[in-house]
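Tokens in:
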């Protein structure tokens, strides 16, 4: 007999999938030196173009600096920098990020696991990575 899942459980699963997909979207855009068309993002993320646009809009509304480039060679891109700036966080900010990663699942992606290890290390004063 198939196990039924509660509406809350399904909602949590969909939220988790969305968060992981949005993380991947940011990583894809950050890795590309040129704008990535919505259709290419949809193919890489295995979702519809509409879902990519919805995710992109949510990320932009949250402050992620995704730029829409119009035209034939257009798409979405993130401003690129040769080096990442060091990030200085307060104890409370580190705690907030750890809690967010726990909600995501700190082993859901390699980068989530790496981030969790770095945050816990910073929080506890342990060795960096």
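Residues out:
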């Amino acid at each position: 007999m198939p196990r039924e899942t509660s509406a809350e459980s399904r909602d949590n699963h969909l939220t988790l999938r969305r968060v992981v997909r949005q993380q991947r979207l940011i990583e894809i855009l950050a890795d590309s030196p040129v704008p990535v068309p919505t259709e290419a993002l949809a193919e890489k993320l295995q979702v519809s173009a509409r879902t990519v646009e919805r995710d992109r809009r949510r990320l932009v509304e949250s402050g992620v600096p995704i730029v829409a480039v119009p035209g034939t060679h257009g798409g979405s891109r993130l401003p690129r920098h040769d080096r990442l700036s060091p990030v200085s966080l307060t104890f409370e900010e580190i705690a907030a990020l750890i809690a967010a990663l726990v909600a995501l699942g700190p082993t859901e992606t390699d980068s989530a696991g790496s981030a969790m290890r770095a945050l816990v290390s910073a929080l506890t004063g342990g060795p960096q990575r």
